[in-house]
Amino acid sequence: MADKKGNSKALIIVLAVLLVLGGIGGAAYYFYQKDAPKRELAALGYNEQQITVIMNSKLADEVIENSPSELFSYALSDSIKNISHTDFYLIADSKRTQNLSVKEHFDILKKMLESGYDSADCHTLIENLSLEELNSLLRMEKPANLEVFTEGVAHGFDINDSLKLSEGNSELAKMIFDGAIDFELVRPLLDKQYSADDILSLIKNLSEEDYLFILNMKYIPELAQLSSMENFDMNLLPRYLMSLRSNRSDINDVVNWVNNDNDYIPASEIDYSAMYHDETIPDDYMSYTACINKQYALPADYVPSDLEQLPYGYHVLDHPMRHVAANAFVNMSDGSVVAGYERILAQSNYRSYDHQKSLYDMYVEQDGVKGADTYSARPGHSEHQTGLVTDIGTGSLDMLYLENYSGYQWLLENAHKYGFIQRYPEGKEYITGYEYEPWHFRYVGVESATLMYEHNWTLDEYSLLFN
Ligand SMILES: [Zn+2]
Which residues contact 55 (CB under 8 A, 6 or more apart)? Predict the structure, then answer.
């Protein structure tokens, strides 16, 4: 019995020992397993501090899977105290571009992540933009529609174009990406500050011919809305704008209002003096197409630098013209002879500010301000001061009787070919602010003159679209 008791005691002890050993072994095994990632990380070359960061951010599995990762190691060493986005660097390494060093890639990625770009955007942008472009992008506001922006970049558009495409309506961008419209037909309008919505509406509403035409115009804020109106007529666009900007009509009515000639004012009812208002000096006052009228004046001291006398036989008075205009007039005068008519002569061309002042003052003395304003310009407002004007006569006709000239029709139909327009035509007095002057021709250059001739636009109208 005593032996049996002794045996059971020994058995209990053995079992207890085994239990303890098993417990220790199990615990050891448990801790051994738990440290496996750390050992793997250590084997991959990460130091203790880095391993702690990786374990704390629960990235061990990804790190093991994606290592070796230069970018990640760099991020880890650099931003050890701030490990936000560390996972991005890890994944980014597999997509690193050869164009950037690890440091460059890390720095730009860090900046982008801090600016709110997500990892997918970062990859697309880094793949498609140079470091310089990425840095300039980061100085700008984040694109309005990043999806469109990155798609633009991926399609090979530069950063500014992609930014523009990402603003507003993405439908336009999609059309461009799909090749439905050539970007080169959109770019000029984007450059002129039209929004994507505006452009989309212009594409939808304008004929192809009109659309191509507006590419050369300046930015017209009202254009998109006007072009969406039924019966919109490109030829009448300047008159729509004039009526709108003088508050004679509003945007919902103006197209039909002008189409029905409601803006027209007969010459006899025009208040010519009232047309002087908000006078300013235009920026382009020295250009060949400068519009000098009752709203736009020349500086009192402006004298064109290239004035020259016309050759003998081409003029009545000794008034010079600017070089280009003088040449053009000589050609036009020769043209009148070739066409079989009496030679046209330049009767009155450049006038200085002071000369115009003395003329105007004299007319005011004769006819009062209201009377003088119908036919004479106040100083600074005379086109003659541009040096681009000629009042035309002939050897046998004073300019005042030019309508009786046998080649008058020829002149009206051909002046644009030499770069001249009749500046104050009949029926346009309410636009020009001057009575009909058959004799007064203005040089604007062949291209502009032809455009005005073909559209029946005065310089005032043309300049609303082009100057
Ligand atoms: Zn004149």
Answer: 37, 38
Token pair for residue 381? 């407002």
Topology given in CATH for the domain delimited by 268-466: Muramoyl-pentapeptide Carboxypeptidase; domain 2 (3.30.1380)
**DSSP secondary structure, 85-131, as one string:** THHHHHHHGGG--TTS-HHHHHHHHHHHHHTT--HHHHHHHHHHS-H
| CA 363 to centroid of ligand 1, rounded, Å | 15
| Averaged pLDDT of the chain | 89
d(CA 428, ligand 1 centre) in Å? 16
Question: Would you say residue 105 has pLDDT above 70?
Answer: yes
Of the pLDDT bands very low, low, confident and very high (cuts 50, 70, 90), residue 31 is low
| Rounded Cα distance, 313 and 467, in Å | 35
Q: State the catalytic residues.
A: 437
pTM, two decimals, is 0.75
277 Cα: distance to centroid of ligand 1 (angstroms): 21
Q: Where are the domains of the chain?
A: 40-142, 229-263, 268-466
Residue 127 CA from chain centroid, whole number: 27
Retrieve residue 238's tokens: 């300047």
pLDDT digits (tens, 9 = 90+) for 226-256: 999 999 999 999 999 999 999 999 999 999 9
Residue 2 has pLDDT above 60, yes or no: no
CA distance 84 to 376: 76
Q: Which two tokens stand for residue 120?
A: 């997918």
